[in-house]
Amino acid sequence: MLYRRFDTVVVSFSGGKDSTVCLHLALEAAALTGKLPVRAYFWDEEAIHPETIEYVERIRARPDVELRWLCLPVKHRNACSRRSPYWYCWDPEQEPLWCRPLPAGAETTHAWFKRGMTIPEASPYVYGRELGTVCDVRGIRADESLRRLMSVMHRLEENWLQGARNGNNYPASPIYDWSVTDVWTAPMQHGWDYNRAYDLFYKVGVPLNDMRICPPFGEEPLGALYRYAICWPDLWDKMVRRVPGAATAARYSRTLLYGFGGERLPEGIPSWREWTQRLLVLYPEPYRSIISAKTSSIIQMHKNKTKRPIPEDTADPHSGLSWRFLANLIMRGDLKGRRQGKLNDAALKQMDRQGLTLTELMESDRDSTTRY
Amino acid sequence: MTAQPAIDITAEPVSRVEWLHRSQLSANDYNPNHVAPPELDLLLVSILADGWTQPIVCLPDLTIVDGFHRWTLAADPRMEARYHGMVPVVRVQLDPIHRRMSTIRHNRARGIHGIIPMAKIVTQMIEEGVKPDDIQIGLGMEDEELSRLATHIGLPELAGALDFTKEWTPGKKPAAAKIQRVK
Fold first, then answer.
1. Do A291 and A182 fall into the same domain?
2. If DSSP codes are grouped into helix, strand and coil, which group holds residue B26?
3. Does residue A250 fall inside a structural domain?
4. Which of A65, A84, A103, A208 is deepest in the core (most CB within 10 A)?
5. Given an 8 Å threshold on Cβ–Cβ distance, is A266 in contact with B176?
6. Partner residue facing B145 (CB), from A83, A248, A284
7. Domain boundary pick from A152, A182, A197
8. Is residue A146's pLDDT more than 60?
């Protein structure tokens, strides 16, 4: 259907399990509609598993796939470090520190690419307007997370088809309703090739839902950073010097130094409120301003809901906020706002514990500034 | 008080340390231990600072059982200048199974550092006037680790030592003013 509706179909290929399914679906559809070879593009994030490189090389060698290999200085999150919260893969200025040599045939510059772009920002430009309407096939699945569920609900004609970005680029998520087991059933039943990094994940006991081919230094993958040192020691030797904080995060990412188990106040700190303020000043500019603005907006959200002061430790039953929550948020340097959803959970829990209903709360907070 | 039976110190490997040239030794082919660059650098710092405190453990044919990375570092120019390629060696008689066990044992029979005690030691050193740079080199830490450990205890002095600035930029909250100095 996508091949009939759009002038050009491209597959956003990461080497992961979900894009593996997309690529093979595209191969079938292109064969049916006589549109072979399948166009695909791969963002090479530099610090990637050797198995991923081998797998993408095998895909590139296929005559029925026309793969573009992109090694551009894309901006990535570095959650290891407070002082350098971003890193740029294949940064020309850091060539001596690169984790591996540039692969053959890689695209390293483009007129449309500006330093500081992230992958989602740059992706709509990879295939230009000369190709007409471009459908960008991505392996996003709703059951991965709420955020991803939201992203497949921008209906164009179907749930999984979004409106145009950059005028001609339409993201599509054809496997949006697949579960993680479906994604593995398909290659097994059809005998498709896949990324052997998953075999290694399986051997070291990673749960199926957590097996992700993704940049290593972001918030979510940080807890598994130590795994690189165990599974890919040669790669790790380069990674540990590639971004500031990598060695520290590998050692402590699952501890209180990175906001895990942040239920106890550090010794010598009188209150969570004070700890929140101290943590914030540890960030250099411009990140301090960004985080500070985020913090202010959360506090404002609280003030809109109730006149009660922000509690120290236990969540407010209406806003879910506490100084402890803010301290842990800042500790993790949550620049993408990924943890704010936890506020609702905290509020609901506290509401339950105090035996309140939402109506009662809204009634008691009626004199606050909120207009419902 | 009963007299202790005399121990035969000559039977102990440490009583039979020989100084040999590193070229006489060879690596084993089974060691699963991998030392990442920061720890390898720290190992060099350790030997240069303290000297050789532990001999390399070898089989009678001088295949290394324990000490592969120290042996590798013996080729470093600074080590070469000081020791001219000589390394301290003790030889032990081990069958093929027990020599592999011995290699792993030498690396595994050690502990893990608690975070809070580490944070305390680091904070103490700073209070005693040790420069952050010297702590980083001496303990093999990048500044991220030192800063996270030290600030965990809540030591505002370190913020100054590490070049942190103290004012809040956006908004009107005079937060920085509220930070109290901890004695």
1. no
2. strand
3. no
4. A65
5. no
6. A248
7. A197
8. no
Does residue A336 share a domain with residue A187? Answer: no
Residues A189, A92 within the same domain: yes
Euclidean distance between CA atoms A21 and A179, whole angstroms = 12
Domain check: are A34 and A157 in the same one?
Answer: yes
Tell me if A63 is assigned to some domain: yes
CB contact under 8 A, A244 and B143: yes
- Contact between chains at A292 and B159 (C-beta distance less than 8 A): no
What tokens appear for A129 in the block? 């307007």
Q: What residues make up the domain containing A13?
A: 2-197
Highest mean pLDDT among A4-18, A272-286, A322-336, B169-183: A4-18
pLDDT recorded at residue A177: 82
The first and second tokens of residue A50, run together, are: 């050797």
Nearest to A169 by CA among A117, A109, A129: A129
Q: Could you tell me the pTM of the whole model?
A: 0.77
A171 plus A281 within the same structural domain: no
For chain A, the domain total comes to: 2
Pair (A98, A181) in one structural domain? yes
Q: Collect all residues with Cβ–Cβ distance below 8 Å to B87 and sequence separation of at least 6.
A: B19, B20, B21, B22, B25, B52, B56, B67, B70, B71, B74
Query: Do A45 and A172 lie in a common domain?
Result: yes
Q: Is it the case that residue B164 has pLDDT exceeding 50?
A: no
Q: Any CB–CB contact under 8 A between B154 and chain A?
A: yes
- For residue range A199-254, what is the model confidence (pLDDT) as tens digits? 988 888 888 878 888 888 988 888 889 889 888 999 999 999 999 999 999 999 88
Identity of the highest mean pLDDT range in A6-10, A340-344, B98-102, B167-171: B98-102
Whose CA is closest to A98, among A44, A37, A29, A39?
Answer: A44
Domain boundary residue, one of A164, A197, A230: A197
CATH code of the domain in which A177 resides? 3.40.50.620
DSSP assigned state of B2: P
DSSP symbol at A189: H
Q: Which two three-digit tokens encode residue A76?
A: 């990535």
Contacts of A233 in chain B (CB under 8 A): 34, 36
pLDDT per residue over A324-371, tens digit each?
Answer: 888 888 887 766 666 666 777 788 888 888 877 777 777 777 665 544
Among B34, B153, B175, the residue with its CB nearest the CB of A233 is B34
Comparing CB atoms, the residue among B147, B153, B167 nearest residue A267 is B153
Domain assignment of residue A319, yes or no: yes
Q: Which of A252, A260, A264, A303 to mutate against chain B (most B CBs within 10 Å)?
A: A252
Does ipTM come in above 0.90?
no
Say yes or no: A174 and A301 in one domain. no
A174 secondary structure, DSSP code:
T
